[in-house]
Design goal:
The structure holds 2 protein chains of 2 kinds. Chain A is of the alpha+beta class. Chain A folds into 3 domains: 44 residues; 350 residues, YVTN repeat-like/Quinoprotein amine dehydrogenase (Methylamine Dehydrogenase, Chain H, 7 Propeller); 289 residues, MetI-like fold (Orthogonal Bundle). Chain A is 41% helix and 27% strand. Chain A has 16 helices and 33 strands. In chain A, strands 6, 7, 8, 11 and 12 form a 5-stranded antiparallel β-sheet that branches. In chain A, strands 1-31-30-29 form a 4-stranded antiparallel β-sheet, with no helix packed on it. In chain A, a hairpin with a 5-residue loop joins strand 25 and strand 26. In chain A, helix 2 packs across helix 16, helix 6 packs across helix 11 and helix 11 crosses helix 13. By secondary structure, chain B is of the alpha+beta class. Chain B folds into 3 domains: 126 residues, no CATH class; 97 residues; 251 residues, Orthogonal Bundle (MetI-like fold). Chain B contains 16 helices and 13 strands. In chain B, the strands form 3 sheets. In chain B, strands 6, 7, 8, 9, 10 and 11 form a 6-stranded antiparallel β-sheet that branches. Chain B has a 5-stranded antiparallel β-sheet with strand order 4-3-2-1-5. In chain B, helix 7 packs across helix 10, helix 7 runs antiparallel to helix 12 and helix 14 packs antiparallel against helix 15. Chain B is flat and about 90 Å long. The interface between A and B is large, with 124 and 110 residues.
């Protein structure tokens, strides 16, 4: 009380400084907690959107007064809509105010319009007279000062010369690498016309044409992936797949019924890349089918099913992802995604009649309605490809024979299905940590026991900091040595490494036995220096193992140990493998465990030890019955902290594994860990993409794993401290 | 006798001696591993600079033709016959009972003229090995070393010296070229760099002017005129500098030499391409040591060449030091204040326990997670917003919204806070209460006690903490790969252009240099010695820092032993 009164009597400045200091210091303490919380919550904030759902919201309804729309599309920036109608009119309209910007006419009635696969904003138009031409919508952007304006125009891709293909039931067009392929069905005949070296602005001439007779009539024809197949479909759900050879020949590959006799197909569309077909039926199911290479060649298989509440009448694929929208007979629109098996959201929409479209950025959906208007819906669907099952379970990816765990985040192809399974990465992380701990824990703990309990104090004063300096050794150096020196060394001397594992214990046993025969005086004077005495023995064992290596290789492994492991044990050998990681990362973890465990053991009160020794226990008995037991919480927390370090270590793993995400416990194979994966992929990941957020998710997983380990270790250690205090 | 031995073996086993030995072996393995690693790095790293002899090997090639191979014998290894069969496909020339075969890695250089520059040769095929004194090594700006015999010196294509006089003439002319090279470097780094920087600033000024819509027309056009004027002045300066540079480049290209290489071809090298040349086979040990010293100096002070696989590592050293300095400035206040709070101000309770758990967790969080956080939060979030607010003119090219020096320093500061906290706290704990009480009893406030008594006494431990933090930061690579390190930075983050310290620039780093050169370079054989040398430097720095910290700590421990008891 009195002190306080005096404090108040202090001159202003001193009091002021005192108070400020108090607050600043308290703030500093809080800042540490704030920092750790900030890291966690920031990671969480970045990760959260991937678990958020999607939404569909009503947008504008455009009264365009179009008679019978046959095809709809939107430009890249959602500014301009495009509609083809059956009379041959094409209209560009402004999405902002619904006014018509530009209108043109083919002056002939249109039978159908198809998007030219795999291009965007390109359309093949077929008239009722059987004439076909190809168009491209162009939206040139110009600047007048800072004013941006966008144009709209429909241009011929080749020339204004319409191609005569005659009356057909259905057709499809593929245009890539200057080769134009047109496939069409008329009755029981399938025709494929090919134009090679098709250059823009030139007439299309002299197609190589092939015609084959089918065994029945089909209703639809569709090019498959890269134009290498043709899907033929009937409205009742029969599919036939034909191979299109390089020379343009057609070979039947496979036939299949998509639905049972009693079930009726209500809609069918291909997904991006055209590996998959999605088929909706009157049982309210939507099934994804794709071609799988199995025992009997290529077969079309049902891969996954979605159950809706009503039967889907329209399926609208997203142009750049493997997702689609389904409109059902109950007036609901659903957004679905195949890889993640998610029905993301549902929303009541007006009745659909005629064409539908989803914008290139998947943020807008257009639906033509019976009254001639076009309704738009805003889609909010950023990360549909991620779900718990896509991240952690086996997923059946397009083109794979079975569901697998796979991490493959990017590829050169635009129609690539990203594979975001974290399981192989988690596996790799645990595998690396496991092998490292396998090597590090025994050595670190035994070393700590010896150092704390037996070692001569003079030697301990040097050894302990010496090993702790090892903890400061940059892991990039360990990684570099592991990758460029140790990995080739082990590969070339595998038998020597195996020999060391056997010879080293034998040498120690021998040394220990031999030591007994020395005079007592010598032994006592050298007590506490064992740790140094064994070093030459270890070096000798290692050197002799290496010099004997090639000979042993001949005797035991038939001259080639890697081959022996492959043929006899069935183990593949990678140069950069878990054995290398175990040794290198083990070396990084040893000092961490050693240092904490040694502190714990050294801190065991001497009266406990003396009591035990006085009761007649040997040094060794005292060690295992008293010292280890007392120090066990400390040793445990040392192992936890070591494990945390092994799980999150980046550079060693990055440099000394092949970084291939394989799932195999084989010690001679590499792995890809969370940490290495982040280091490799994050610099290239597009900000805020699903890939970016998943990498943040893996960082958060790492954060949480180590958080748990460290917190447990710290709590245990605090307990231990109070226990020693009471002894 | 036999009986006795048996019991003694049994008693030996039950005494646990064996287990003690096994525990001792664990320590032994650790010691051997640390020692072995350090020795490996030291030997390989130091050997890189030694001017080793050039061997001339008469070698029986696979087609039984005798060839002459000239180069440095780098290392040898022993293969089992099976491995030999794997690599050559055939071992029929050996007797059936031969088990091993020895081969040598020869650095033959001449990468452009006679690739590859590294070859494995089997020792049993050596016909003869000689070390002719006339052979020389020519270190080049590009394409690595050339090995061969200097036969002529040329000026403008005309031979001016041959035979005996060739070496003195060559050395004289090489030192002339070196002088010119220095002048060129000065212009490029100084004048050119400054002009480019100022031009970029003017471009940004102009853009800023465009974005500023509150300016009157008159003010705008006068501003614009002054920018244009400045630009024109700079263009003039640029032209002048360029002319000067051209003249120097022409002068540099005057002389060339002719070298006969191992396949008999005559190689003409312009002196502009030659960095150094030496004849190791006729150098005395003293000369070799001198050469060694020069090599080490060049390694430390030069810029890298040939995709970082040759030349020096100066920018990496510079970048590391600068980053670490910035980091220390950032981490010290936070770490010290937190420690002071924990020891001096906080009442021990759940909150303090929570802070301790937080500190421990900060220490245990994998460094790559800091990198991810730094990239997302500092670079994209804070940096991106800074760009929007202050550097609009440069957009869409990011200024701070891209990895750079300041973000790397901040990230590492966060990463090393626990090191400083723990060390400072340890120092504070060691200060006896009597000292604080004495100060308070004399009427000092708590803050005064802290600033005038406690912190000065604890300063060595604070310093220890900073040194350890620096050591940690200098060796950390994983987070830096995300927040600011690049394999080759065009400019140093510190130069003569205002504001001198460019916090937004990317920088080079020793640890990343090791990773990059060792794993990303196309010619690993050529790069490996340099990686060892870099690794050695990094290890030396870190061990030195750690030893300093340990010594400081020990001194501190002893200092208050008397007071406490």
């Amino acid at each position: 009380m009195k002190a306080k009164a005096e404090l108040h009597a202090l001159p202003g400045r001193r009091r002021w400084v005192n108070t400020i200091t108090q607050y600043v210091v308290a703030l500093g303490g809080g800042a540490v907690i704030a920092a750790i919380a900030l890291i966690f919550f920031y990671l969480l904030w970045v990760v959260m959107p991937i678990f958020g759902g999607a939404s569909i919201e009503d947008g504008a309804v455009y009264e365009l007064d179009v008679e019978a729309p046959v095809f709809l599309d939107v430009n890249e920036s959602d500014e301009i809509g495009l509609v083809f109608d059956a009379t041959g009119e094409v209209r560009f309209w402004d999405m902002a105010d619904g006014t018509t910007r530009h209108q043109l006419s083919f002056e002939r009635p249109i039978q159908s319009v198809k998007a030219i696969y795999p291009r965007s904003a390109s359309y093949a138009v077929l008239t009722t007279e059987g004439e076909l031409n190809l168009f491209e919508a162009r939206y040139p952007i110009s600047f007048a000062g800072d004013e941006r304006s966008i144009g709209s125009d429909l241009a011929y891709i080749f020339s204004d010369q319409w191609l005569e293909i005659g009356e057909v039931d259905d057709f499809d067009v593929h245009l890539a690498n200057s080769t134009l392929s047109i496939a069409y069905l008329s009755g029981w005949t399938l025709t494929l016309d090919r134009y090679r070296d098709a250059e823009p602005d030139f007439d299309l001439e002299f197609p190589r044409s092939r015609e084959i007779e089918l065994d029945r009539a089909f209703d639809r024809v569709m090019f498959g992936p890269r134009g290498q197949w043709l899907y033929l479909l009937t409205d009742s759900g029969d599919v036939a797949i034909y191979e299109v050879t390089r020379s343009g020949r057609l070979n039947p590959l496979h036939q299949r019924q998509l639905v049972q006799e009693t079930t009726e197909l209500t809609a069918l569309e291909p997904l991006l890349g055209r590996y998959s077909l999605i088929a909706a039926d009157d049982q309210q199911q939507i099934t994804q089918w794709f071609v799988v290479r199995g025992e009997f060649g290529l077969t079309l298989e049902p891969v996954r099913q979605f159950q809706l509440d009503g039967e889907a009448t329209h399926l609208v694929p997203e142009p750049r992802r493997k997702g689609f929208a389904a409109l059902d007979s109950g007036g609901q629109a659903h957004l679905l995604y195949t890889t993640s098996e998610r029905v993301l959201t549902s929303h009541r929409v007006r009745e659909a009649s005629g064409p539908t479209a989803i914008s290139p950025r998947s943020d807008l959906m257009l639906i033509a309605q019976p009254d001639g208007t076009i309704a738009s819906y805003h889609l909010e669907n950023e990360h549909p490809e991620i779900s718990m099952s896509a991240l952690w379970s086996k997923v059946w990816y397009e083109g794979y024979p079975d569901p697998v765990y796979s991490w493959q985040s990017s590829s050169a192809d635009n129609d690539f299905e990203a594979k975001f399974s974290l399981t192989p990465l988690l596996f790799g992380t645990l595998k690396a940590a496991f092998y490292a701990m396998l090597f590090a824990v025994p050595i670190a703990i035994m070393g700590a026991l010896y150092t704390a309990y037996f070692m001569a104090p003079v030697m301990r004063r040097i050894v302990k900091p010496g090993i702790e300096i090892m903890a400061a050794l940059p892991t990039v150096i360990l990684g570099f040595l592991a990758g460029l020196w140790l990995a080739p060394l082990i590969e070339a001397n595998l038998s020597a490494v195996i020999t060391i594992m056997l010879a080293l214990p034998a040498a120690i046993v021998f040394l220990s036995l031999a030591w007994q025969w020395l005079p007592d005086k010598v032994r006592q004077s050298m007590d506490g220096w064992y740790g140094l005495i064994v070093v030459p023995v270890i070096v000798l064992a290692v050197v002799s193992a290496f010099s004997l290596g090639p000979t042993l290789e001949d005797i035991f492994f038939g001259g080639d140990s890697r081959n022996w492991f492959l043929t006899v044990m069935g183990l593949d050998y990678d140069q950069r493998n878990a054995l290398v990681i175990g040794l290198a990362m083990g070396l990084a973890v040893i000092p961490v465990i050693f240092s904490i465990a040694e502190d714990a053991i050294y801190g065991v009160p001497t009266h406990l030890i003396n009591g035990s020794l006085a009761l007649g226990a040997t040094r060794w008995q005292t060690l295992i019955r008293v010292v280890i037991l007392t120090a066990s919480p400390g040793i445990f927390s040392a192992v936890m902290i070591g494990l945390g370090r092994a799980v999150g270590e980046t550079m060693i793993v990055l440099m000394a594994t092949g970084n291939t995400p394989v799932m195999d416990w084989n010690i001679f194979q590499g792995m890809r860990t969370f940490a290495a994966n982040i280091a490799v992929e994050l610099p290239e990941a597009e900000v805020d993409s699903s890939h970016y957020r998943i990498l943040f998710l893996t960082a958060m997983v790492l954060f949480m794993i180590t958080f748990v380990f460290n917190t447990v270790a710290e709590v245990v250690r605090q307990r231990l401290r109070s226990r020693y205090g009471s002894l | 006798m036999l009986h006795m031995e048996k019991t003694s073996v049994r008693s030996w086993f039950s005494s646990g001696e064996l287990w003690i030995w096994i525990n001792a072996a664990a320590v032994g393995i650790s010691i051997a591993a640390v020692g072995g690693l350090l020795a490996l790095i030291a030997v390989r790293g130091l050997a890189h600079f030694w001017p080793s002899d050039i061997a001339e090997i008469r070698y029986l090639a696979a087609n039984d033709q005798e060839t002459i191979v000239v180069g440095e014998m780098i290392e040898s290894e022993t293969l089992s016959m099976a491995q030999y069969r794997d690599s050559t496909g055939d071992a029929s020339e050996f007797p059936a009972d031969q088990e091993i075969v020895r081969r040598w890695l020869i650095k033959t250089g001449n990468r452009r003229e006679d690739p590859p520059d590294f070859e494995w040769l089997y020792e049993y095929r050596f016909q003869a090995v000689a070390h002719p004194e006339s052979l020389a090594v020519f270190e080049r700006m590009e394409w690595g070393n050339a090995y061969g015999e200097l036969i002529a010196v040329l000026e403008d294509g005309e031979v001016v010296a041959g035979g005996e006089a060739v070496w003195p003439e060559f050395r004289a002319r090489l030192s002339r070229v070196e002088e010119i090279r220095d002048q060129i470097g000065e212009i490029e780094r100084g004048e050119f760099n400054a002009i480019n920087y100022e031009l970029e600033q003017l471009r940004l000024d102009r853009r800023r002017l465009e974005l500023n819509d509150r300016l009157s027309q008159a003010a705008r056009s006068s501003e614009e005129a002054s920018i244009t004027e400045a630009e024109e002045a700079l263009q003039m300066r640029y032209l002048r500098a360029e002319a000067e540079l051209r003249a120097l480049i022409d002068q540099r290209a005057r002389d060339s030499i002719e070298v006969e290489i191992s396949n008999g071809a005559i190689l003409r090298l312009n002196l502009a391409e030659v960095v150094r040349a030496w004849q190791p086979n006729q150098m005395s040990v003293a000369e070799k040591i001198g050469h060694y010293g020069t090599s080490v100096w060049l390694f430390l002070s030069e810029d890298p060449r040939e995709a970082n696989t040759e030349g020096g590592i100066f920018p990496a050293i510079f970048g590391t030091v600068l980053m670490v300095l910035l980091m220390s400035v950032l981490v010290t206040p936070l770490g010290v204040i937190a420690a002071v709070y924990l020891r001096e101000y906080a009442r021990q309770g759940p909150f303090v326990r929570l802070i301790r758990i937080a500190v421990n967790n900060l220490a245990g969080v994998p460094s790559i997670v800091y990198g991810v956080f730094g990239l997302g939060f500092f670079v994209y979030f804070i940096g991106g917003n800074l760009d929007q607010l202050f550097f609009e003119a440069a957009l869409p090219a990011p200024t701070f919204g891209t990895p750079g020096l300041v973000w790397a320093s901040l990230t590492l500061a966060l990463l090393t806070v626990p090191v400083v906290v723990v060390s400072t706290e340890e120092g504070l704990t060691r200060i006896p209460r009597s000292i604080r009480e004495g100060s308070l009893a004399l009427g000092a406030t708590k803050a005064e006690t802290l600033f005038k008594v406690v912190l000065p006494i604890a300063s060595p431990s604070i310093l220890t903490g900073i040194i350890l933090a620096v050591a940690r930061a200098a060796g950390e690579v994983a987070p830096l790969m995300l927040v600011g390190v690049v394999k080759l930075a065009p400019t140093l983050p510190l130069d003569g252009n205002f504001p001198y310290l460019h916090l937004e620039r990317k920088f080079m780093h020793l640890g990343f240099h090791i990773y990059d050169v060792g794993f990303q370079s196309p010619n690993v054989d050529a790069a490996r010695p340099l990686v060892y040398a870099t690794a050695l430097l990094l290890v030396l720095i870190i061990i030195a820092l750690n030893l300093t910290a340990i010594m400081l700590r020990t001194r501190l421990e002893n200092r208050y032993r008397g007071v406490e008891s």
